[in-house]
Specification:
This protein is of the alpha/beta class. It contains 20 helices and 10 strands. It folds into 2 domains: 376 residues, Alpha-Beta Barrel (TIM Barrel); 63 residues, no CATH class. The strands form 2 sheets. It has a 5-stranded parallel beta sheet with strand order 1-10-9-8-7. Strands 2-3-4-5-6 form a 5-stranded parallel beta sheet, covered by helices on one side. Helix 4 links the parallel strand 4 and strand 5.
Length: 482
Amino acid sequence: MYRARLWTMRQYTGFGSAEATNRRFRFLIKQGQTGLSVAFDLPTQLGYDSDSQRAEGEVGRVGVPVSSIEDMQILFREIPLADVSTSMTINATASIMLAMYAVVGLTQGAPLRALRGTTQNDILKEYIARNTYIFPPEPSLKLAVDIIEFCAEEMPLWHPISISGYHIREAGANAIQELAFAFANAKAYLNACIERGLKIDKFAPRLSFFFACHSDFLEEIAKFRAARRIWARIMRDQYHASNPESMKLRFHTQTSGETLTAQQPQNNVVRVAIQAMAAVLGGTQSLHTNSLDEAVSLPTEESVKIALRTQQIIAHETGVTNTADPLGGSYYLEYLTKRIEDSVFEELNRIGKLGGAVDAILRGYIQTHIRENAFRQQLDIESGRKKIVGVNLYMDNEAYRIKVHKIDPLTVRRQISRVRILKRRRNNRKTQQNLDKLRRALDSEENVMRPIIEAVRAKATTGEISSVLREIFGDFRPKAAF
């Protein structure tokens, strides 16, 4: 199960415009990048076009705006999709973004079977930690399974879901809760796929996970080691998988944005390096290192380069990739790994008694535990029990000036104009016909990936496709604040 190897190095990018992001992609490739990651802006994540009134003030702010196939084509211009691996931070509208990516690949001459990458597509953690959901949990789960089923048949090199502990941890969970809540969500997806009629060994080998790495060096290494054992046990003992590939934990790690400080931001370079080393020693297969300025603003090109170089120094200068599981056998690490493993299974049993992850989410059980732990952590910082250099320890009055990346308002106006022009000059009759086909597919409960791909080909926008989904599924509104 353990192999000494390098990991896929990634840097998130995507803000301001598809053109700016494309330039960043090409810059990273020249710097030796081996994988691309794109985060989409909030309107795209919530199913609104850039020209929507609801998108005002948010276009391109925390990711790249993609309202149509034309935006996706600009985003990957001069980047051969058959030769790169692309990870996409997208959930509620993951089916739409994957459809657009697939169409761009096909336009380039790359068959679907050659496309490599990941759609985050973990909608359950949105109800827990991020709140960028659109539809109620049940139909959202159906859309997630549609992607898993489609990729199992048509895109075998694609990871159709990245089940995320990262956002759960960043919202305030501890290491044990991060794993337990993520694996509880994973079991919900597994159950939904099996109910669809999918065979466990058909789709499980392409499932992936996404974890955070904080600064408690030994605990984080033990966490990743425990996660591998937990997943293998779940797949073998609870789902009776027979293919060893189904039992392997494939995971991406991102260093913790929550631990970065606006005070003395240069210290963040050290924090990121320590966290990245812990992830590598824990066996991550894919890694993103945060930039030093992310507590203040979107990262500059210079800070992104430092973050990438951090990975490259670990990979090529430290020798830690020469052996698998380099800290295995350490008395304390083995003890800590076992303690985390046992604690996670105890929490999974409690969630199981509530009916599983979906019921636990709807009852507010998971959200309440994250909130309580986050409150305790903040009290520890304010009291000084948890020490943070530059915040409550070794503080100084020196003003630290760093370059702040700002979004050019002109790029936002261009993006809005591009969407409006597309809607005027496309064949609107053909677009509407394909949206009607999607509506009929939703009524029949068939897999919607093919109808969405055809709607994308007809230049239907993210907002228009999402509107059809909203019409059938409705918008989710929690009955009460958890």
